[in-house]
Amino acid sequence: MNKDFNMRHFLAALAFAGMSLSATGAIAGERTIKLAVEGLGCPSCYFIVERSIARVRGVKSVDLSVETNIATVTFDDAMASAQAISNATDANGFPSTIIEHAS
User: Cα separation of 99 and 35, whole Å?
Assistant: First the structure.
């Protein structure tokens, strides 16, 4: 009987954990976004934007296209948000707009 009792507690805890996860939404993970960055006119501008994005906690990679002024950013969404990344470029004088959310 003790073994059955422990198994029931285990299954109840497992069911509760599953409900808790589904109630909070998606589990955090790696995401990729694209930002259209304004005001890029010189090589140092690209460096400043890449560095400001890379300094956001949770950012894993930044690829800023010189041809299109589009930054592709991969980050851990448990540590950062797309808006926080966009705000980082804004704070350094380069307004950006989130143009694509991808997984």
Answer: 6
